[in-house]
């Protein structure tokens, strides 16, 4: 793992997409340095706070992996990988990441409006086990705010999902990945241990350094 995240915003990077052995149905977006040879797959994550309330670092929305027990460590803020179909040449990498995090939030949390969305300048870089040498992923960490109406929309949608499991199974795959929403509580909504604790730590670093 590279100690310092590579700068995916620099000019001249090659843009592309590639299928993963973990999920061969999709092509995931990456940028690659033309001479140094490193490749970074682009991912995003957003910490959503209720608008109009005092900003508390951990008062953020989290969603649970479909089918997991409520008490299991499978909760996380809305996050996900950028797909190749979303990689366009007319937008900057930052704009692409912003679009990606809005899409992931709509699919996973059923939030359709994020206010004051911004990149926190915090990045978590890592490697998957199936990556070749000099290949990484980056989670770009965003902050946003949601209104009472958006919060109600999210919670009501998940209530509907609970009441209509057969209809929920007919939804397209990307919208069936999460089946519960909550405000984060370290005792009752335990974070997915894979990357989320590190991502949360970086977000808290952003909050406490302000």
Summarize the structure.
The chain has about 210 residues and is of the alpha+beta class.
Would you kindly provide a written description of the structure presented here, covering whatever features stand out?
The protein is an alpha+beta fold. 24% of the residues lie in helices and 33% in strands. It has 4 helices and 9 strands; from the N terminus they run E-E-E-E-E-E-H-E-E-H-H-E-H. Strands 1, 2, 3, 6, 7 and 8 form a 6-stranded mixed beta sheet that branches. The protein has a 3-stranded antiparallel beta sheet with strand order 5-4-9.
Topology readout:
Layout: E1 14-20, E2 23-32, E3 39-50, E4 61-65, E5 75-76, E6 79-81, H1 93-109, E7 115-126, E8 135-146, H2 148-163, H3 165-169, E9 178-183, H4 196-208
Parallel strand pairs: 3-8
Antiparallel strand pairs: 1-2, 2-3, 3-6, 4-5, 4-9, 7-8
Pick out its properties:
3-stranded antiparallel β-sheet; 24% helix; 210 residues; 33% strand; 6-stranded mixed β-sheet; alpha+beta; globular
Beta-strand content estimate: 25-35%
Task: Determine the mean pLDDT.
Answer: 95
Looking at the chains present, what oligomeric state does this protein adopt?
single chain
Number of helices: 4
Q: Please identify the structural class as seen in this structure.
A: alpha+beta
Query: What series of H and E elements makes up the topology?
Result: EEEEEEHEEHHEH
Shape assignment: globular
Spans of at least 5 consecutive residues whose pLDDT stays below 50 are none
Gap from first CA to last CA: 28 Å
Biggest pleated sheet: 6 strands, mixed
Number of strands: 9
Binned, the helix content reads 10-25%
Using the CA coordinates, give the radius of gyration: 17 Å
